[in-house]
Amino acid sequence: MSRINFDHVYYTYDVSSPLPSVALEDISFTLEGHFFSAIIGHTGSGKSTLVQQINALLRPTKGRVIVGEFEINEGKKKIKEIKSLRKNVGVVFQFSEYQLFEETVLKDVSFGPKNFSDSDEDATLKAKNALKKVGIKEEYFTKSPFELSGGEKRRVAIAGMIAMNPEILVLDEPTAGLDPKGAQEILDLFKELYDQGTSILIITHDMNLVLKYCNQVLLMHQGKLKGIYAPSELFYQEELLLETGIDAPEIIEIVKLCEENGLSLNRKEIKDITSLVREIKRCKGK
Amino acid sequence: MKELPIGRYTNYDTFLHRLDARFKLLAMILFMVIVFLHFPSRAMDFTFYGILFLFIFIFLKIAKLRFRQLLRAIKPMWFMMVFLLIINILVVHTGDAFYLFSFPIYYDALFNTAYIFVRLVLMLAFSLILTATTKPMDLTYALEWYLHPLTWIKVPVHIIAMVISLALRFIPTLMEDTDRFMKAQASRGVDFENGKLKEKVKAIISLIIPLCTSAIQRSSDLADAMEVRGYDPNGKRTRYRIMKFTHRDLFSFLFIALLFSGALTLSILGIDFYMGILL
Predict the structure, then answer these.
(1) Chain A neighbors of B191, CB-CB under 8 A
(2) What residues of B are in contact with residue A98 (Cβ under 8 Å)?
(3) pLDDT tens string B239-278
(4) What is the residue range of B94's domain?
(5) B161: buried, middle or exposed (CB in 10 Å: 19+, 13-18, 0-12)?
(6) A2-246 carries CATH number 3.40.50.300
């Protein structure tokens, strides 16, 4: 079971410079069990900084982060411990398609497992499986990653992380800049991984995605954690959304209109158009 | 990775910041010439180095720069200096010597090292002051202004200046990219600090290739953006910012010219204040 625990975490960029900027302030929360969670918030609210604490790319200036049995605090850690932490928590960055560098797609995807001291054959096997999961066809395996389209490159980059078989997969805006079809395919992939047992933490600006897939939302605002909500609660709290500059999915408006017209819908069940239609039908007694 | 301490432009409004970039560039070159002038005696040489250090100190104070920044820039040179000292001690065998555990050490070797060290520090300090008080764009304009006569022999000065300013503009972007790629590859298990040579080479390759491809991608995007907005490398260009040579610049110029000609005269005529008594 995966567990992420933040205990009064502060993070400041350029601590010793004349202009230190506080990115995280007193963040405390726990994610436990098998989760598909989202971090939302305005640009510059500290989402990416928060995510980088989870695999020790950044270390808290104050406080501590506990992931599984690893504790990350301001002190230095042995590289071996950090490596095994990074094997358990895979972070895929924004615009990850630019990080590809090997001669072939297959080699690039097996780069991660090899770094975690897998044998060449094991690494290649894991890479092949990961590539199949993200829907890259076998004839692409020997191509150079630079020949692929943007969406394909991103899928290869994500495969690079999946190949390491992390317990928790963290993704920083994985659908940004993709066409709707490509985005949908990637989301379906995450859902599949989630169903197979991987916990997923996703940074996103796409509220439809949050409503449809996630079971918890961490709302960030100006470096602070506003709270953890269920999507079906959060999007009906108008004042909170206004304050943090979040737009609720359009479907929420429809739900509200239906309720004004006397339908008593079960908000928890409404995740997308299909489930909304189902709820309306149920209320109408069909 | 995050900061570029050496001579990063500081956004203050001081006397040095307001000076004309063309003048500052010239002044830096004159100061550097003084650094390399040869005076008749070592005492004179070091007197002048002392004067130059005094100037640097005053400039740093005026420009509100911190002395620590300069020290930090010098720090990486220590290793080189120790190496140079050892080489000098082994190679230079002229002049007087003293014995350290019956090993001869010649004064000339020590002085040679001191000369190189002092000159490097002085040059570094002057260039640091220049770049910390002048916007990179203004420096490029100044360079373009000086290179202007070359247009008579068909050298494309505009283009060179544009290339330089674009290169400067990309430094922070590339730094950001480096930081991002390092983190991305570290998440895939790359260890940039430890490891065997082979692993280190692999780590660096995993950083350089993405950096190069993204740099090429960015420059091709930028080229398109410039073309769309009508950039024509051979067209006549007008300026948004007009540089003015003011009284301030004139007085500073006279002062530097005086100092420079004084130093030059002393050097050429071989005048020694100390009459060869010292050193």
Answers:
(1) 79, 83, 115
(2) 177, 181, 210, 213-214
(3) 777 777 788 888 899 999 999 998 888 888 877 777 666 6
(4) 1-135+247-279
(5) buried
(6) yes
